[in-house]
Amino acid sequence: MIPRGRLQQLKARRDELEALMADGGGDDFAALSQEYARLTPVVEGIARLENTEQELADLTELLADPDMDPEMREMAGNERLELEQALPDLMHEMQILLLPRDEADEKNAILEVRAGTGGDEAALFAADLFAMYRRYVELQGWRFNTMDVSETDIGGLKEATAEISGSGVFARLKFESGTHRVQRVPQTESGGRIHTSAATVAVLPEAEEVDVAIDDKDLRIDVFRASGPGGQSVNTTDSAVRITHIPTGVVVSQQDEKSQHKNRAKAMTVLRARLYDLERQRVDSERAEDRRQQVGSGDRSERVRTYNFPQGRVTDHRINLTLYKLTEIVAGDALGEVIDALIAEDQARRLAASGDE
Questions:
Q1: What is the greatest pairwise CA distance in the chain?
Q2: Hey, is 82 helix, strand or coil?
């Protein structure tokens, strides 16, 4: 059941925000515009629902006229039938729009991919995953900025970090966190045996300075010489930066840039995101009931997906989804189908939970 009083409150609040912004908004303009942007799709959904209900009421009243022309009656009856069929979808859409939003959904994201168990094959798989996300990001019209990469001699990745920016990035990618498993014959395998390897993915909401307060005295900053695959030196100056957040023990390293200043700025961006993620996890752990309703915990130790190359399938274990589109998914072209299914499942669970309240 949709609370009609709440719908009117949301419309009134959007109108109030519009008026405040028209007057300049003062120092709160950025916060006002963000709230306005969040409320706009909700108010548009309310308008679609209310317009449909009003049209239905008008047609019902029209059809109650016994003197109505038969041809007009048939047309009005067909139109009413179409609206009646569309109404449940509009109601469902409205219920989803009214679900509590994750405050981080509209944020950009920091993507971290690391090779797990499996040696060289795990590193090659990590490189495949990193390329998959890069292609998916390009298809969304987002921006993919590689921040740090540690490669192996044969083209794999020990670990890689990227900043992804665009509209609703974290909302789309947050369920990718976890352990991704691959089953295939490695390039280095001469006997044709299938190996199982793994890589971990972490998607963190990018935090603003106002989201996380970091005291300089809590940081230990070390500089060192950057190195390439196999330990070869790629820089003759101490431009690489390692930042340790002493209270939490979180360590971030950056060495992609030749400038120590740029590496430090990138490292601080990643550190801020990790500390923000730690705080989100702390809050989530205090909301055990809410956490059970999510599609997986996002824990990096949780096996979330298997890519089986011999069978050409990808299985997401959290929602028991199997798609025989491995090539298209790994290429990034069909990854959206998996993400859409995860989002739909999360919405369905939260709708069910809200109905039990």
A1: 92
A2: helix
DSSP 273-288: HHHHHHHHHHHHHT-H
Helix axes 70-97, 29-63, angle to 10 degrees: 150
User: What does the alpha-carbon distance between residue 189 and residue 258 come to, in Å, rounded to a whole number?
Assistant: 37
| 253-283 pLDDT, tens digit each | 888 888 888 889 898 889 989 898 888 877 7
Mean pLDDT of the chain: 85
pLDDT per position as a tens digit, 297-350: 555 567 899 999 999 999 999 999 999 999 999 999 999 999 999 998 988 888
Could you say which DSSP state residue 100 is in?
A: P
How big is the chain, counted in residues?
357
Contact 258, 239 (CB under 8 A): yes
b/e 279-318 (16+ beta carbons within 10 angstroms → b):
ebeeeeeeeeeeeeebbbbbeeeeebbbbbeeeebbbbbb
